[in-house]
């Protein structure tokens, strides 16, 4: 029973943290997409794309951290890991594809892949800045 409750609690925290981060990422992506597309985009679709991206990204990063045994601070050895760098590049590609495929503009045409790349790059730059200041 304890294992079931632990698993359920972990799943709830996974979804909660993913949705909190997705809100911040969606605000950044929304601003970048409005700027690069020179048109308004649908915010709730940006949020859904960011939520799916975060759900997948957290699983990937926690999987790497578990595999390398860096689940507790200090995280500097984890940030220097080649496997984590590969997973982060894969994560950025996943984010770009999700934003590109799931986010329409208000005129119902899809955003450009370059705009999705720019939004993901801005999100990752801000995330790396925050993460390295905490380590």
Mean of pLDDT? 93
Q: Biggest β-sheet: count, sense, barrel? A: none
Number of helical stretches of at least 4 residues: 5
Q: Could you give the order of the helices and strands?
A: HHHHH
Q: Uncertain regions: pLDDT < 50 for 5+ in a row?
A: none
Give the beta-strand count.
Answer: 0
Percent of residues in β-strands: under 5%
Q: Class by helix and strand content? A: mainly alpha
Q: Report the end-to-end length measured between terminal Cα atoms.
A: 36 Å
Shape: globular
Task: Using the CA coordinates, give the radius of gyration.
Answer: 16 Å
User: Percent range for helical residues?
Assistant: over 70%
Give a verbal description of the structure.
With 135 residues, the chain is mainly alpha-helical. The protein has 5 helices and no strands. α1 crosses α2 and α1 crosses α5. The radius of gyration is 16 Å and the shape is globular. It starts with a helix and ends with a helix.
